[in-house]
Amino acid sequence: MSSITTLSVVSSMLSAAVVGLGLQLLRTVRAYQSMESSLQHKQLESASTRNQVSDAERRLGELQRSLDVAQEERRKVESEQQQLLRQIETLKQQPRNEMVRRVYNIVTVGVSQCGKTALTLKWANPLFRLRDVMPTQFVKYERTVSRQFAKVGPIVEHVFEIRDWGGEHMSNAFIELFTLESVNGMLIVVDLGTTEGGPDGRPVVCFSPERVKQQIEAFPEATLRLCFNERIVSHCKTFTLFINKSDALSGDLAQIEAQALELYAPLINILRKLQRESGMVDIEILVGSASSGHNTQNLFAHFIEKILPPDAYDPTLLQMMHTVSVAA
Ligand SMILES: Nc1nc2c(ncn2[C@@H]2O[C@H](COP(=O)(O)OP(=O)(O)OP(=O)(O)O)[C@@H](O)[C@H]2O)c(=O)[nH]1
Ligand SMILES: [Mg+2]
C-alpha cells in the first residue's frame, strides 16, 4: 500500500472518530439539558410542596387553637354540670314543693252598692264585666302578687288577701279589724251616685249629693278613731279612701277629681286629723271608677308599694309596677 492510501485511510478513520465524538457530545448535551429541565421541574415541585406544608402547618395551628377553645368550653360545661348535679342533690335532700305563703290582709269597708266588689274584681281581672257583680255578704279574694324562686330553699308566694264585707255587714268588717292578727291595708270605698242597670245591662250612675252626705255620715269621727287605734296603726301600712264612680261627674279628669275631693272634704279632713294624732304613716285619697278603670290599677299599685317589702318583688311584678308608673 502506498503512503497516500495509508494517509487517506487514517484520515477517514479520524473523520469517523470526530463524527463519533461529535455525536457523543451531542447526546451528552441533550442528556444534560434533559437533566437540567427535570431538575427545574423537581425544584418547582419542591417549592409547591413547601407551600403546601406551610399551608398545612397554618391550618394545623388553627385547628389546634379551635381544639383548645373547644376543650376549654367542655371543661366549663362539665363544671356547670357538676354544679347542677350538686344542686339537684341538695334539692333532693329538701322537702319537695315546699312553698311558703306570706299573706297580707286588706280590709275593705263601705256602704252597700258603693263598688267595693267591682273594684276588687277589676283588679283581679281587668276584663271582668261590672254587670255581673252581685251584692256581697263576705268574700275573701286572694291574689298572688309575687312569687320568688330561690336557688336553695322554698318558693315564697306573697299573697294579698282582700276581705270584702258587704255594706249590709259593715259592722262585721269593723269587728274584724280588731280580731284579725294583722291588717296590712285598709280600704274605705265611697261613691258619688246611685247606680241603675242601663238598657244594655251596663250600670248607669247618677250623681247624688244625698248619697254623698249619707256616706259621710256613715263614717263618723268616733267610728274612724277606732280604726286608728295603736294596734292597727302598728301594722297597717296604708289607709286609703277611694272615691268611686267618678263617671257620675262631668269634666276632664282633673276637674272631676277636684269636685270629688271637695264633696268628700269633711271625711278627708277627719282622716287627716286622725292621721296626725295617731302617727299613721300613709293616707291616700284616690278618685276613680271601677266602671271606666280610672285609677283602679293605681289603687292596687299603691297597696303593693306600701305593703309589700322591697325585697319581695319578682320580675313580673317589677315590670307591672313600672308599666303602671309610666302610665300614671
Ligand atoms: N257606673 C258605675 N257603676 C259602678 C261603679 N262601681 C260599681 N258600679 C256598679 O255599682 C253596683 C254595686 O257595685 P258592687 O261592687 O256590687 O258594690 P259593693 O260595694 O260591693 O256592694 P255590696 O256588696 O252590696 O256592699 C254594681 O251594679 C256595679 O256594677 C263605677 O265606678 N261606675
Ligand atoms: Mg260587694
Question: For the record, what CATH class of the largest domain applies?
Answer: Alpha Beta
Poorly predicted regions = none
Unique ligands: guanosine-5'-triphosphate, magnesium ion
Q: Into which percent range does the helicity of residues fall?
A: 55-70%
- Could you tell me the CATH topology label of the largest domain: Rossmann fold
Give me the secondary-structure topology.
Layout: H1 3-93, E1 99-109, H2 116-124, E2 138-148, E3 155-165, H3 170-179, E4 185-191, E5 193-197, E6 203-207, H4 209-218, H5 221-227, H6 230-235, E7 238-244, H7 253-263, H8 265-278, E8 283-287, H9 296-307, H10 315-327
This protein binds guanosine-5'-triphosphate (GTP) and magnesium ion.
Q: If you had to describe this structure to a student in words, what would you say it looks like?
A:
This protein has 328 residues and is α/β, with parallel strands linked by helices. It folds into two domains: 24-93; 99-327, P-loop containing nucleotide triphosphate hydrolases (Rossmann fold, 3-Layer(aba) Sandwich). It contains ten helices and eight strands. It has a six-stranded mixed sheet, sandwiched between helices. The mean pLDDT is 89. Bound molecules: guanosine-5'-triphosphate and magnesium ion.
